[in-house]
C-alpha cells in the first residue's frame, strides 16, 4: 500500500480587524491606540444633582389623539428610573 503525503496547509486568511486591532493578536503600537481612542472628557458636563428620590406629581393632559408630552426634571443619578 502506497502512502500519500498529507495535503499542504490552507493559506492563512487576512486578520479581521476590530477597533483598529487585528484579531490574530498582533497589537500595533499601544501609544498610537491610546492617542487615537482617548475621549475628550472636558466636553462631558459634571453631574451635580445626586438626589436618590424624585417626586413627580403629574397633571397630564392629552391632545385629541390621546398623545401626552411629558417634561420632567430627573436627578443625574447613574441608575435607571421606573415611573409607577
Automatic annotation (TrEMBL):
It comes from the Eukaryota. Residues 53-83 form the Alpha-2-macroglobulin domain. InterPro entries: Macroglobln_a2 (IPR001599). Pfam families: A2M. Transmembrane segments: none annotated. Residues 1-14 have a biased composition (Pro residues). Residues 1-25 are annotated as: Disordered. Signal peptide: none annotated. One of its GO terms (molecular function) is endopeptidase inhibitor activity. This is Alpha-2-macroglobulin domain-containing protein. The lineage of its organism: Eukaryota, Viridiplantae, Streptophyta, Embryophyta, Tracheophyta.
